[in-house]
Specification:
The complex is a heterodimer of chains A (1187) and B (279). Chain A has 1187 residues and is an alpha/beta fold. Chain A is built from 34 helices and 31 strands. Chain A has a six-stranded antiparallel sheet. In chain A, strands 16-18-17-19-20-21 form a six-stranded mixed sheet, with helices on both faces. In chain A, strands 10-12-13-15-14 form a five-stranded mixed sheet, with helices on one face. Chain A starts with a helix and ends with a helix. Classes of the chains: A alpha/beta (1187), B alpha/beta (279). At the A-B interface, helix 11, helix 27, strand 26, helix 28 and helix 30 of A face helix 2, strand 5, strand 6 and strand 8 of B.
C-alpha cells in the first residue's frame, strides 16, 4: 500500500480509530516481512538446488577421472603381474575399484542419457579388453609362464583399446564440464535474483515504516498535542477558542468533543459566575431603592455601564394612566424633545411593553439617534429595548450603544430583568402600601383632631350648661323669694286694668260727643293724674316690703352665723342685688310718677356753685379712678357764685348724667363744665340765655346714634336692648332728669356722635322763680277729634306731631296694652276698635299701623288692601297682629310683618321696631325697567309692596325720561331692553348723574365680557333660574335696607389734588376678581388715571399688544385662573420693548418667599391685599416717574 | 432636686421648631391646635428619621428643600369624594340653584388637600349645568398635596366608597362616568379640572384673593386654635359676597367665634352657613 493511497483514503482513515490505524500500519509491516522471508527461502532453495547440480557435476567429473585412473591402474597392474604374478592381486583390486566407480558413475549419471550411453560403450569396451587381453595374461601369469614376450607380444596389453576407452571418458568429462558451466550459470543467476529481491524488499519496508510514522504523527500525535495545549489554555482560564477535530469519529474526535464540552462547561461556569457577581452587585444596589425613581435611576445606570450603552431611558408603567412615563434617563437629557411617555403599542417602547419581549435593532438606521459627547457624536450600532415584568408589564428600558450584547450580557440581562421586575413590583406595591398607611394615619390624625375639637366644643357647652343651670337655680330661688312682691304686683295690675277700663269708658264718652270733648279731656287728664298718684302711692307701698326683703337677703348673704354654704350665700346675694335693682326701679317710677302727677315739690334755695361742682367731683373722683378715666371739672368766667334752685334735684340730675357718662365711657375722660348757654333750650324757649346757666357733662364714650337721640329721654328707653344687658340701669334716669330739669324751669338736651362721645346739657335759670314749667298734661291731639280715642297722653310724645302709631284692634284690653307700648316709645297712639274707624284714622297718615285681622265690621285683609290701594296710605308700614296664622298672605298683601297671638312683650317690641324702621325710611322708589319678560308680575309686586313703591318703565328711553324727572333708590333692569342695549342705557343713565344701585336681572347666561361691562356699573347681576327671584329680592332689599354710599369715590375726591401728577397716565389692572378690579379702577380713575381692565393674562397681553406697550404701569394680580400673574409677567418681560413697563404684583399671599417670586418673574414691586391705596399710589408715583 | 419632665423639653423644642419655620420660611404654625400639632410633629420626626424635634429644626434651617417635606408632613390631607354625602346633597338641592343666579360662580375650596372635594364639586356643578360658568379656587399650603390634587389620581380601592357617597349625594349617573380605572388607580377626567385653579394659599398668613359665592373649608379648622379659627373665618367672611355660603366640616361650628353674628345658619346638618346681608 502506498502513501498516495493513504492520502486518498484520508477521511476514511481519519475516521478509523487509532487502534485500527496502528494495527493497519503494523500488519502491513508484518506482511511485508513474511513475504520477503518466503521469497528469500524459495530463492535460496533454487540456489541450493543449482549448487547441488554443480556439486553433482563435480562428482561426476571426479568419478570419471577416478575411472580413467582405475583403468590405467588395471593395465599397469596387469602389465606388472605378467612379469611377477605377485602383482596379480593388485590387478584384481584395481579391477574391483573400476567396477565400483563405474557403477557409481552409472548411478550418478542416471539422469543424463548421453552419459549413460557413453558409459555403456565404455563398459562394453572394458569387457572386451578384459576378455581379449587381460584374461589370457592373467591365465598365463597364473600358470607361472612368465613369457613377457608373448604378452608383449599381444600389442602391449591392449593399449588401443584402453585409449579408446580413455577417449570416451574424456568425452564424458567434456560433457560434464559443459553441464557444469550451465549449472554454475543458473546458480549464479539465482543468487543475483535473490540479492535484488532483498534490496527491493528492504526499500519497500523502509518506505512503509516512514509513511506509518508520518501518518501516525499527523493523525494522532499532533491533534493530541493540540488538544493538550488547549487544555492548558482552558486551565489557565481562556475559554475563547475553537476546538478542532470535534467531528472526527475517532478517539481524537471524542477527546476533542470532551474538551469542547469541558470548555463549554467551564465557560458556562465562568459566565454564570460573572452573571452572578454582576447580578449580586446590581441587586445589592437596587435593594435600598424605595421609590420607583431611585430604582429606575440605579438600574438604568448599571445597565448602561454593563452594556456600554451611551444612551438609555427607563419608562415605568403607570397603571392609572395606562401609559409609560420616563422615570430615568442616561444620556437622555439632551433630547428634551423626545417623548416622555408611551402608550402600549406606541413606538418600539410601547410595542415592547405590549409584547413583553425584548426588541433588538441592529444596525440602527442612520439618523435614528445620535449619541453625543463634548467631543463628537455618532450613530449607535445597536438599539436594545427590554421589558421589565412582574405579574404584568412594569416598565421598559431602552438603550442604545455601539456593541451588541454578548451571551454573558444577554444572560445577565435576562436574570437581572427578571429579578429587577420582581423588585420593582415590590417597590410599586410598597409605595401603594405606604400610601395606604399614610392615608390611614392621616385619617386617624383627622379623627383625633376632630374629636379634640368636639371635646372642646362639648366642654364649652357643658360649661355653658353648668352656668345656665346655676342661673336657673338662682332664678328659682329669687323667684320664690319674690313671690310675695309678685302677688302684690298682680293686684296692682288688676287695679291698673280697672283704671284703664274707667279711662276707656270716659274715652267712649268723648267719642260720642264733641261738645264734651274738652271736659272729657280734663277728666282723662285727671284720670291719668290719678294713675300717677296711684303709682306714686303704690311705689311707696312696694318699697316697704322690699326693704325687709333687702335687709333679710343682705343678712343671709353676709352669713354671719356661717350655716349657709357658698351657693346659698350667692343666691342670697342675687336676691339682694335683684331687690336693689327693683328698689331702684320703684324709686325711679315713683319719681317719674311724682313729676308727672305734679306732686314733685321744688324747694328753691341759694346754692353755692362751688358746692354743686365740689359735691359731684367728690362723688365721682373715686369712680373715675376705679375706671381709669380722667374727670375734669371746669367753670367758665363770669358766673354768679350762687344759683337759686332745688339743690337735691339738681344734684340728682347731675349724678344721673355723670354716672351715665362713666358707665358708657371705656377710655378717655368725663368733663363737668358750667357755663352760660349760647341760646335758649328747646324745652324752655322763654328762658333768656343770659339769665341761665348751662351744666354740660361731656364724655368720650360710645355715644348715641343720631336716630336714638330723641328716644333716650323716653321712659324705659335705652340706646338698644343690649345696652341694659351690658350697662345695667332702669332706663328711667334720663326721663326723670329731663322732667326734673323742666320742673326746675330749664331743660335737658343731648348732643352725640356714635363712637365719639356725648354731651348732655342741663339748662337752668340762674334764679328759679318757683313756677313749675312742666305742664302736667299734654295738649289733646287734634287728630283724635274725628272718631277714635287718643289715650296715651300721659307720656308726652317725644317725636314730632305726626309721629303717631295707629292700633286697629277690637280687643279693648289688648289695644290698650299695645297703645301703652307705643307710648312708651314716645309716639302717640291712635286707637280704633273697628275697621271703619281704623281707616278713618289712617287718613291722618300715622307713622305706622298695627292691624288685627279679626274686626267686627270688616276683616283685616280688606283693611290692608284698602290701605295699600290708596296712594296716600300705601307707604304706611302695616304690621299685622292676629290670632289667625296666615303670615304668607299678610306679607303678600304688603304687610311688613306678621305676629301671631298670643304675643309677648318682646315680640311686640320687635314688631314696633320693624314698623318704626320701615317708617323711618324715606319713601323708597324702585324703578323696574324692561323687565316684562324677565320679571314675573308677582316678583314685581313683592319688590314693590314690601319695601318701596314700584314704578315700571317698559323701555330704556322711558326709564331715562323718568330718571330725568325723579330720583329713585334702586333700579332693576332686565338685561334685554326693547329699545336699546343695557350698556347704552347704563352709560346714558350714568351721564345724568350718579346711578342708584342697579340690579340686573338677566334672562339668559351672560358671557365674560358682558359680565365685565355690567360690573362697571353694578355688582348685582341675577341670572334667571329656579331660585333667581329669591336672590333678586335679596339684592333689592339689600339696597333698600342700606343705601350704599360710594365711600371710595368720596375719599378719592378729597385726595384728588395730591395725585395730580398721575393724571393722564394709563394703568392696566389685571385681576380676575371683579370686586378688586372695579374698586381699584374707581380709585385710580378718580385720580385722573386712565384705567384699562383685564380679567386674565391673555387679555392683559392683548391690551398691551393693542397699545403697543404704551401703558405706564401694570397692576398684576398673582392668583388668576389659567395663566397666572407670574406667567403673565414673564410673558410681558419676554417681549422686546415691553421690558420697561413697570409691573406691580398684587397678591393675597404674605409669605416672605412670595415677594421674591414676584420679583423673579419680572415684577418691579409688590403689594399685598387688601390694598392700601396710599401705598399703591406712592408705588405708582415712584414707578411711573421713573419711566 | 426635680428633674425637668420629658414633655417640657419637648414643648420647648416644638416652640423652637415653630419659631424656626416662621423665621426661615414664613410659615406660622404657632396657632395650630397644640395636641394635634404635636402628634404631627412626632410623626414627621419618625418619618424623616430625625433624632429629635430639635434636629428637625436644624434641618429646616439648613436645607431649604426640606420645607416641602415638612409642610407635607404637618398637614393632614385626608378626605374622600362626596364626604358626608348629605352635605353635597344639600349643596346640590339648596345652594347651587341659588348660585345659578350669578353670572359667574366663584368657589373657594380652602385646604383642598388631595382634591377629592374639588372633583366632587366639579362633578356636582357639571351635573347641574353650572360648571361652564364656575371657577373653583382650590388652595392649600401644602405644595405636595396640591400637586397630587392637580393630578386627580386616587387609589382604586377608594372608588367604591366614592361611588356610594356620590349616589347618596344625589349623583345623576355613575361616578365611573368621570374617571378611568386601571388596576389599582382611578384618574378623574382632565375636563373636570378645566375651571379649577390650584394655588398655594396659607390660611394663617395670606389674605383675601377673590370674591366668591361659596367657600368650602371642611375639617381644616379642627387643627387650628381659636385665634387662628377666628382669623380664618374673618378671611372667609371678607371673601364672601353678601348672602354667600360657607360650608364647614361636621365637627366645626361658628359658635364661640367672632364672626358668629355675621352668618346665619342655612342647613345645620350640612354645616352650611350664609353670610348675612350687612346691616
Amino acid at each position: 500500500m502506498s502513501s498516495a493511497e493513504a492520502k486518498a483514503g484520508g477521511s476514511f482513515l481519519a475516521n478509523l480509530n487509532i487502534q485500527a490505524k496502528l494495527a493497519l500500519a503494523y500488519g502491513l509491516v508484518l506482511v511485508m516481512f513474511t513475504l520477503t522471508c518466503l521469497i528469500v527461502f524459495v530463492n535460496n532453495e533454487d540456489l541450493a538446488n543449482s549448487r547441488g547440480w554443480v556439486r553433482h557435476t563435480y562428482t561426476v567429473i571426479s568419478r570419471l577421472s577416478e575411472l580413467k585412473a582405475d583403468m590405467l591402474q588395471q593395465r599397469i597392474d596387469l602389465a606388472t603381474a605378467t612379469r611377477d604374478p605377485a602383482y596379480l592381486a593388485n590387478y584384481e583390486i584395481a579391477r574391483q575399484n573400476f567396477g565400483r566407480d563405474f557403477e557409481d558413475l552409472k548411478q550418478l549419471t542416471v539422469d543424463n542419457p548421453s552419459q549413460q550411453q557413453r558409459l555403456d560403450r565404455i563398459g562394453a569396451m572394458i569387457n572386451g579388453w578384459y576378455s581379449t587381453i587381460a584374461q589370457p595374461i592373467v591365465a598365463r601369469a597364473k600358470a607361472g609362464q612368465t613369457d613377457s614376450s608373448a604378452a608383449t607380444g599381444s600389442s602391449e596389453y591392449g593399449y588401443a583399446q584402453i585409449e579408446r576407452i580413455n577417449g570416451l571418458l574424456q568425452d564424458a568429462v567434456q560433457e560434464e564440464l559443459g553441464l557444469l558451466k550451465d549449472r554454475t550459470g543458473t546458480s549464479d543467476h539465482d543468487a543475483g535474483n535473490l540479492k535484488l529481491f532483498v534490496v527491493v524488499m528492504l526499500g519497500l519496508g523502509l518506505l512503509i515504516g516512514a509513511v506509518t510514522i508520518l501518518y501516525t504523527r499527523r493523525q494522532v500525535t499532533e491533534p493530541i498535542v493540540g488538544l493538550t495545549t488547549l487544555m492548558d489554555r482552558l486551565v489557565a482560564g481562556d475559554t475563547v477558542f475553537e476546538v478542532p477535530n470535534t467531528r472526527q469519529l475517532d478517539e481524537i474526535g471524542a477527546l476533542a468533543r470532551g474538551l469542547e464540552s469541558f470548555r463549554n462547561v467551564k465557560s458556562a461556569a465562568d459566565r454564570e459566575r460573572w452573571v452572578r457577581e454582576h447580578l449580586l452587585d446590581i441587586n445589592a444596589g437596587l435593594l435600598p431603592a424605595s421609590t420607583v425613581d431611585e430604582f429606575a435611576e440605579f438600574l438604568l445606570t448599571s445597565l448602561c455601564h454593563l452594556l456600554r450603552a451611551g444612551y438609555g431611558a427607563f419608562f415605568a408603567w403607570d397603571d392609572a394612566q395606562q401609559q409609560m412615563f420616563l422615570r430615568a434617563g442616561y444620556g437622555y437629557s439632551g433630547h428634551a424633545n423626545l417623548p416622555q411617555q408611551f402608550r402600549p403599542g406606541q413606538g418600539l417602547v410601547g410595542q415592547c411593553a405590549r409584547d413583553g419581549k425584548p426588541i433588538l435593532l441592529n444596525p440602527v438606521p442612520p439618523n435614528y439617534l445620535r449619541i453625543g459627547s463634548a467631543l463628537g457624536e455618532a450613530v449607535p450600532q445597536v438599539l436594545m429595548i427590554y421589558p421589565l415584568k412582574g405579574r404584568d408589564i412594569l416598565g421598559v428600558i431602552e438603550m442604545a450603544g455601539f456593541e451588541t450584547p454578548g451571551p454573558d450580557q444577554e444572560q445577565l440581562l435576562a436574570e437581572l430583568l427578571r429579578s429587577a421586575g420582581l423588585q420593582l413590583d415590590a417597590i410599586v406595591n410598597a409605595e401603594k402600601t405606604r400610601m395606604l398607611l399614610s392615608q390611614a394615619q392621616a385619617q386617624t390624625e383627622e379623627l383625633q383632631a376632630s374629636e379634640e375639637e368636639l371635646r372642646a366644643t362639648n366642654d364649652a357647652l357643658q360649661d355653658k350648661n353648668r352656668l345656665l343651670e346655676q342661673q336657673r337655680t338662682q332664678l328659682q330661688e329669687s323667684e320664690s323669694a319674690l313671690t310675695a312682691q309678685a302677688e302684690e304686683l298682680r293686684a296692682t295690675n288688676e287695679e291698673l286694668e280697672e283704671t284703664g277700663r274707667i279711662l276707656n269708658d270716659s274715652n267712649a264718652q268723648l267719642e260720642q260727643t264733641r261738645l264734651a270733648l274738652e271736659q272729657k279731656a280734663t277728666e282723662l287728664a285727671r284720670a291719668s293724674q290719678y294713675k300717677s298718684e296711684f303709682l306714686a302711692n303704690m311705689s311707696h307701698e312696694l318699697r316697704t316690703p322690699l326693704n325687709s326683703v333687702l335687709i333679710l337677703a343682705k343678712n343671709l348673704a353676709d352669713n354671719e352665723e356661717g350655716h349657709l354654704n357658698d351657693d346659698e350665700t350667692e343666691s342670697a346675694r342675687v336676691i339682694h342685688d335683684s331687690g336693689t335693682h327693683l328698689l331702684q326701679l320703684i324709686n325711679d317710677i315713683l319719681d317719674l310718677s311724682k313729676v308727672e302727677a305734679g306732686k314733685m315739690e321744688v324747694l328753691a334755695e341759694d346754692i353755692p356753685v362751688a358746692d354743686i361742682l365740689g359735691t359731684s367731683e367728690r362723688r365721682f373722683r373715686p369712680v373715675a379712678k376705679q375706671r381709669g378715666l380722667a374727670l375734669r371739672v371746669e367753670q367758665a368766667e363770669g358766673l354768679p357764685a350762687t344759683l337759686r334752685s332745688d339743690s337735691a334735684k339738681l344734684q340728682q340730675i347731675l349724678t344721673n348724667l355723670l354716672s351715665n357718662a362713666f358707665k358708657f365711657t371705656e377710655r378717655g375722660r368725663v368733663t363737668l363744665r358750667l357755663r352760660r348757654p349760647d341760646s335758649a333750650p328747646e324745652g324752655a324757649p322763654e328762658l333768656p340765655p343770659q339769665q341761665a346757666v348751662l351744666f354740660e357733662v361731656l364724655d368720650t364714650g360710645i355715644g348715641i346714634p343720631r336716630e336714638k337721640l330723641d328716644k333716650i329721654f323716653a321712659p324705659f328707653e335705652q340706646v338698644d336692648a343690649s345696652t341694659s344687658r351690658k350697662y345695667g340701669g332702669t332706663g328711667l334716669g334720663l326721663a326723670i332728669s329731663r322732667r326734673m330739669a323742666r320742673l326746675l324751669g330749664g331743660d335737658l338736651q343731648v348732643n352725640s356722635t356714635a363712637g365719639e362721645g356725648s354731651v348732655f346739657q342741663l339748662y337752668l335759670p340762674e334764679r328759679f322763680s318757683g313756677i313749675a314749667a312742666e305742664p302736667a298734661l299734654a295738649a289733646m291731639p287734634a287728630a283724635a277729634q274725628s272718631a277714635s280715642v287718643a289715650v296715651g297722653s300721659q307720656v308726652p310724645p317725644a317725636a314730632g306731631p305726626g309721629a303717631a302709631i295707629l292700633v286697629i284692634e277690637d280687643d279693648v284690653v289688648f289695644a290698650k296694652v299695645l297703645a301703652g307700648m307705643v307710648q312708651k316709645r314716645g309716639f302717640r297712639a291712635l286707637l280704633a276698635h273697628d275697621a271703619a274707624s281704623g281707616l278713618l284714622l289712617a287718613r291722618q297718615l300715622p307713622m305706622a299701623i298695627l292691624l288685627d285681622i279679626h274686626l267686627p265690621d270688616m276683616d283685616g285683609w280688606s283693611v290692608l288692601q284698602k290701605l295699600k290701594s290708596d296712594a296716600a296710605t300705601r307707604h304706611i308700614p302695616v304690621h299685622i297682629v292676629s290670632g289667625v296664622d296666615e303670615t304668607a298672605r299678610g306679607l303678600q298683601l304688603g304687610a311688613v310683618g306678621y305676629l301671631v297671638k298670643p304675643v309677648s312683650k318682646e315680640s311686640i317690641n320687635l314688631a314696633l321696631d320693624q314698623v318704626q324702621r320701615a317708617a323711618s325710611r324715606p319713601a323708597r322708589r324702585l324703578l323696574a325697567v324692561g323687565g316684562d319678560q324677565a320679571l314675573s308680575a308677582s316678583v314685581l309686586e313683592q319688590l314693590g309692596s314690601e319695601q318701596a313703591t314700584l314704578e315700571t318703565a317698559a323701555t330704556g328711553a322711558e326709564a331715562l325720561d323718568w330718571l330725568a324727572q325723579r330720583s329713585c333708590d334702586c333700579l332693576v333692569l332686565g338685561f334685554t331692553l326693547p329699545d336699546m342695549s343695557i350698556f347704552d342705557f347704563l352709560e346714558a343713565a350714568a351721564q345724568r348723574g350718579p346711578l342708584p344701585p342697579v340690579v340686573v336681572y338677566a334672562e339668559r347666561e351672560l358671557d365674560q365680557d358682558e359680565v365685565m361691562r355690567l360690573r362697571a356699573h353694578t355688582d348685582s347681576i341675577v341670572v334667571r333660574g329656579a331660585r333667581s327671584e329669591e336672590r333678586l329680592l335679596d339684592e333689592v332689599s339689600l339696597f333698600l335696607h342700606s343705601l350704599r354710599t360710594p365711600a371710595g369715590r368720596a375719599a378719592a375726591v378729597q385726595t384728588q389734588t395730591e395725585a395730580a401728577d398721575l393724571a393722564g397716565r394709563t394703568v392696566l389692572v389685571v385681576d380676575d376678581d371683579m370686586r378688586n378690579i372695579f374698586a381699584l379702577s374707581k380709585v385710580l380713575r378718580a385720580r385722573g388715571l386712565n384705567v384699562l381692565m383685564a380679567q386674565d393674562g391673555p387679555k392683559a397681553l392683548a391690551h398691551l399688544e393693542q397699545r403697543e406697550g404704551r401703558i405706564d404701569a401694570v397692576l398684576m394680580d398673582v392668583m388668576m385662573p389659567g395663566m397666572d400673574g407670574y406667567e403673565t409677567t414673564r410673558r410681558i418681560r419676554g417681549r422686546a420693548g415691553w421690558a420697561g413697563i413697570p409691573i406691580i404684583a398684587v397678591t393675597a399671599k404674605a409669605m416672605p418667599g412670595d415677594r421674591e417670586k414676584c420679583l423673579e418673574a419680572g415684577a418691579n414691586d409688590y403689594l399685598t391685599k387688601p390694598i392700601d391705596m396710599d401705598k399703591l399710589l406712592s408705588l405708582l408715583r415712584t414707578w411711573i416717574r421713573k419711566t | 432636686m426635680k428633674s425637668i419632665p420629658e414633655t417640657d423639653s419637648e414643648e420647648l423644642e416644638i416652640r423652637d421648631f415653630v419659631d424656626t419655620l416662621k423665621a426661615r420660611h414664613g410659615y406660622d404654625f404657632g396657632q395650630y391646635a397644640p395636641a394635634s400639632f404635636k402628634r404631627r410633629l412626632r410623626a414627621l420626626r419618625m418619618r424623616t428619621g430625625a433624632a429629635s424635634i430639635a434636629a428637625l429644626s436644624r434641618r429646616v434651617m439648613d436645607e431649604p428643600a426640606f420645607l416641602r417635606q415638612v409642610l407635607a408632613g404637618l398637614s393632614v390631607p385626608v378626605s374622600e369624594m362626596f364626604r358626608d354625602p348629605w352635605v353635597f346633597e344639600a349643596l346640590r338641592r339648596e345652594v347651587l340653584p341659588i348660585l345659578a343666579s350669578y353670572p359667574r360662580i366663584h368657589i373657594w375650596q380652602a385646604g383642598c388637600a388631595h382634591g377629592e372635594e374639588v372633583y366632587s364639586l366639579a362633578i356636582l356643578l357639571q351635573e347641574e349645568g353650572l360648571y361652564d360658568k364656575a371657577q373653583i379656587f382650590a388652595t392649600d399650603l401644602n405644595d405636595v398635596a396640591l400637586e397630587e390634587a392637580a393630578e386627580g389620581i386616587y387609589p382604586a380601592a377608594n372608588a367604591r366608597q366614592f361611588s356610594e357617597n356620590y349616589l347618596r349625594a344625589g349623583g345623576r349617573r355613575s361616578l365611573s362616568h368621570y374617571f378611568h380605572a386601571r388596576y389599582e388607580r382611578i384618574k378623574f377626567d382632565e375636563s373636570l379640572k378645566r375651571n379649577v385653579t390650584f394655588a398655594s394659599h396659607n390660611l394663617s398668613t395670606d389674605g383675601v384673593f377673590a370674591e366668591v359665592q361659596l367657600i368650602l373649608c371642611r375639617n381644616v379648622m379642627i387643627y387650628f386654635n381659636d385665634v387662628l379659627q377666628d382669623r380664618v373665618l374673618q378671611l372667609f367672611r371678607d371673601s364672601l359676597v353678601h348672602k354667600g355660603f360657607l360650608c364647614l366640616g361636621s365637627k366645626e361650628t361658628l359658635a364661640r367665634t367672632t364672626v358668629e353674628a355675621d352668618f346665619e345658619p342655612f342647613d345645620a346638618s350640612a354645616r352650611l352657613f350664609r353670610r348675612r346681608a350687612p346691616k
